[in-house]
Amino acid sequence: MRFKLPLIPQDKANHFIYGIVIYFITNLVFGVFIAVMIGVIAGIGKEVYDELHDNHTSDWKDAAVTMAGVLLGVLLTIL
C-alpha cells in the first residue's frame, strides 16, 4: 500500500521551521511565554515588512504557518 503525502510549498515549510527554531532558541533564554510572544511578533513582523517593500510578497498564511511552528514547539516543550 502506498500513501501519497501532501506536498507543502517550500516557502510554507521554511516558515514552519523558522517558527520552531525561533521558539526553541528564545525559550532557552526567556521562557515559554516570552518565546511565544517573540514567535508571533516575528511571524507578523515579517509579513508587515513584506507588505511595505515592493520586491516582497506578503501572505497572511505565512504568518499563520510560522505561528503553527511556534505552537508545535510549545507542545513539544510541555509534553
Word description of this protein:
There is one protein chain. With 79 residues, the protein is mainly alpha-helical. The longest helix is centred in the first third of the chain and has 21 residues, at 10-30. The model has no long low-confidence stretch (mean pLDDT 93). The protein is flat. 25% of the residues are buried. Helix 1 crosses helix 3 (60-78) and helix 2 (32-52) runs antiparallel to helix 3 (60-78). The chain has helices spanning 10-30, 32-52, 60-78. The chain has one domain (11-78).
Summarize the SSE layout with pairings.
Layout: H1 10-30, H2 32-52, H3 60-78
Structural class of the helices, strands and pairings? mainly alpha
- Low-pLDDT runs of 5+ residues are none
Determine the N-to-C terminus distance: 32 Å
Report the average pLDDT across residues: 93
> What sort of overall outline do the alpha carbons produce when their principal axes are compared?
flat
Report the oligomer.
single chain
Number of individual domains:
1
| Number of distinct beta strands | 0
Element order: H for helix, E for strand: HHH
Helix content: over 70%
Major sheet, described briefly? Answer: none
Number of helices: 3
Q: What percent strand?
A: under 5%
Radius of gyration: 14 Å
